[in-house]
Write a structure and sequence with these properties.
There is one protein chain. This protein is α/β, with parallel strands linked by helices. It is built from 16 helices and twelve strands. It has three domains: 130 residues, 3-Layer(aba) Sandwich (Rossmann fold), CATH 3.40.50; 163 residues, 3-Layer(aba) Sandwich (Rossmann fold), CATH 3.40.50.300; 72 residues, Helicase, Ruva Protein, domain 3. Helix 2 runs parallel beside helix 3 and helix 13 packs across helix 15.
Length: 389
């Protein structure tokens, strides 16, 4: 369990830290309200202890801002000047409990256990609400043989911590496979953090992945936690990993081997618990031959390889995908469901679909805007190409 202690009194911070670490908990410290708020909003904690009387930003203000910003942690307020009115005010503002100084060991341990249980329930409820509200957002649509094989593979692999490499062309749905793996795993209630390795300049990728300390370079005006730390307990999705620089590859390899990282500008090791899923549209064995990708990293990230077929390889799924996109787009725009004729579907199946699923969705949206209701074969012939005939 991860605990944050926010208190301006060093003796209180250290005493609480010793007590909780003796019980096997991971503890982090903040000496003032501002730092504590920054830590609480940038990392995941099960329980937060927050002193009320602090210089600058006091505990009540910290509590209010944490609640406003949606911090899921159970917040326990502590004070040496406590009274009934203060305790009631804290509870009304969203605190889980209120403890007076001097701190009682048994009370602390009982509070931590109960607060942790409450935090777990809140996280589970949020996960369930998202699933109920949005349905299964990570459902893979299709009944073709290639898709059936992918679904079977996900069912077998999701509950493990095996590293997965997802291959396939742009627009085939590699991210959807990664999200499905996470959603069906024991890490589903923890973060899913995505990094597009191709979109980040090579000089910034290390800071983005591993974080940096204040002053590590000219624009590093404050400490930054990288994507590995942000994904703590959850899943890190390294999209387009084939475009990552060799220098960054070496550091990722170290994290995977040793399960710890070092922020840019620091010499302190930070232990991380993250499942890594990677994806690429490149042929990695060929990139290895060209000297563009490390073979040892390839073997680390490809315990399981899932290849996502192009839409041209699964044209039997076009009717299901088209109906799915019609329903989804109509719901998003608050319009009645639009129909589509069978001969229009057959016309869609004739296309080459070089842009894969992404292109099909765009075409369906264009047909909804410009076509008839129901959508006809003539609509498809006229509007399926971005350059209208």
């Amino acid at each position: 369990m991860k605990v944050l202690i926010i208190d301006d009194e060093k003796s209180i911070r250290l005493a609480l830290k010793d007590i909780l670490e003796d019980e096997g908990h991971e503890v982090e410290l903040a000496e003032d309200g501002k730092k504590g708020l920054d830590m609480a909003t940038s990392s995941q904690y099960d329980v937060i202890f927050c002193d009320i009387k602090m210089p600058g930003m006091d505990g009540i203000e910290v509590l209010e801002k944490m609640v406003e910003q949606g911090v899921d942690s159970s917040i326990v307020m502590i004070s040496g000047h406590g009274d009934i009115e203060t305790a009631v005010e804290c509870l009304k503002k969203g605190a889980y409990d209120f403890i007076q100084k001097p701190l009682d060991l048994n009370r602390i341990l009982i509070t931590v256990k109960n607060a942790h249980d409450k935090t777990s329930i809140i996280k589970e409820n949020k996960t369930l609400k998202k699933k109920i509200a949005g349905g299964n957002n990570y459902e893979i649509i299709g009944e073709s043989k290639p898709i059936a094989m992918i679904k079977e593979m996900i069912d077998k692999v999701a509950h493990t911590d095996a590293r997965v490499l997802i291959t396939g062309s742009n627009g085939t749905g590699k991210e959807l496979v990664a999200r499905a793996l996470h959603a069906q795993s024991s890490r589903a209630s923890m973060p899913f953090i995505e990094v597009n390795c191709a979109a980040i300049p090579s000089e910034l990728i290390e800071s983005e992945l591993f974080g940096h300390e204040k002053g590590a370079f000219t624009s590093a005006v404050k400490q930054h936690k990288g994507k590995f730390e942000q994904a703590e307990g959850g899943t890190l999705f390294l999209d387009e990993i084939g475009d990552m620089s060799l220098a960054a590859q070496a550091k990722v390899l170290r994290v995977l081997q040793e399960r710890k990282l070092t922020r840019v500008g620091s010499d302190k090791d930070i232990v991380v618990n993250v499942r890594v899923i990677a994806a690429t549209n490149k042929n990695i064995p060929e990139e290895i031959q060209k000297g563009n990708f490390r073979e040892d990293l390839y073997h680390r990230i490809s315990v399981i390889v899932i290849h996502v077929p192009s839409l041209a390889e699964r044209k039997d799924d076009i009717p299901l995908l088209t109906q799915y996109f019609l329903k989804k787009i109509c719901e998003e725009n608050g319009q009645p469901l639009c129909g589509i004729n069978k001969d229009a579907i057959e016309e869609l199946k004739k296309h080459s679909w070089t842009g894969n699923i992404r292109e099909l969705r765009n075409v369906v949206e264009r047909l909804l805007i410009l076509g008839s209701n129901p959508i006809t074969k003539e609509d498809v012939i006229t509007y399926a190409s971005p350059m209208f005939k």
